[in-house]
Amino acid sequence: MRDGMRRKGLSAAAALLCGLLTLSACSGGDDAPEEPGGGGGNEQSEADRAAEDANTSEAVISITPDDDAVNVGINSDVEVTVEGGTLDEVVMTAAGTGTEVTGTTAEDGASWAPDAQLDRGTQYELTVQASDAQGREAHEARTFTTISAENSFTGIFTPEDGETVGVGMPVSLNFDRPITNRAEVQDAVEINTSSGQEVVGHWFSDTRLDFRPEDYWAANTQVTVDLNFDGLEGAEGITGWQDRTFAFTVGRSQISTVDVQTHQMRVVRDGQTLRTLPISAGSEENPTYNGAMVISEKLTETRMNGATVGFTDDDGEGEYDIPDVPHAMRLSTSGTFVHGNYWASRGTFGSANTSHGCIGLADTQGADDPDQDAAWFFEESLRGDVIIVTNSPDREIQPDNGLNGWNMSWDEWVAGSAL
């Protein structure tokens, strides 16, 4: 019974569907049947596409880096180019400040690049307009962020660009991040000299790399240093950004020798003795280091407080605190100086060693008397000049205490190279 009812229901439904199909086929009236593939809708779409193609510029803009890129280099990682057209306008600004970055478009109008190094850790916005031969415009835009200080390393260098230095001045690089890829970083430092002296690097630590020749620089040598750190991985996740060249000149050769026992310092320039000066070196309790020391800093006046270098009394105060030490020149990181001394009697110089390790020369308070021994020596000295201390009861100064790598044999120096 139920099967028969199902058959009747299916037959009725089929008859109704057939009627609907027949009605649909007859509903065109007198209109002609459509051609296959025709239809007003398709013809309109093709027309729109044709019009759109006619208005599309043939200029194709390319921008490096990609949109939303991070850790972008700040030297040469940004470039705009166009094919099939010329660049009309390139605007690059620092997000937030709106400061515009100046750039130069090539003479053929096909490329653009910033004129100067970008800032680290900065988001930049870049918009570009170009046009083809028919004047049809093309537009592109990018937003990207340059490498941050946290993800990059910097090599702080000595000497300064353009400086004239003494024959003992090394090229010293101090990095603000520990370097683990030492060989790659050392290899990225290129040093050229007019004297032809071989220059080798030595790692004192994972943040300090010095370069020097086997012997002191030849006088009047021109030295050029290229730091090719841009994009170089110094350690995992730490990339260099510097693409820098600096140069310096080695001046005349001046090497002074201090004899602690005779209390004299002989100043020799280019093999000739200029003067022999009476000095006062470190006392028996606080002797001066032996060894070759390089002048790394010159200060017309400076404050010296014993507490900063470990000389304190029972109350923790500095054993000395002199606010206006004249004509001071640093010889070590730990606080050794050659400087003027106005508080000791004149008879001290040339006869007694009374200091806390420094080398004292006769001077007056105020650093304004050019006839004083300390004033003369200050004016005749360059950063990088060498002072060799002999006959002191103290040990030889450590090579990394200041710019004093000369207190290391050449074999030891070369052994500290990563190459």
Automatic annotation (TrEMBL):
PROSITE patterns: LD_TPASE, PROKAR_LIPOPROTEIN. Residues 254-390 form the L,D-TPase catalytic domain. Pathway: Cell wall biogenesis; peptidoglycan biosynthesis. Keywords: Acyltransferase, Cell shape, Cell wall biogenesis/degradation, Peptidoglycan synthesis, Signal, Transferase. Residues 29-57 are annotated as: Disordered. Residues 1-27 form the signal peptide. The active site is at residues 339, 358. It holds the Pfam family YkuD. InterPro entries: Big_10 (IPR041280), LD-transpeptidase (IPR050979), LD_TPept_cat_dom (IPR005490), Transpep_catalytic_dom (IPR038063). Gene3D superfamilies: 2.60.40.3710, 2.60.40.3780, L,D-transpeptidase catalytic domain-like. This is Ig-like domain-containing protein. It comes from Streptomyces boetiae.
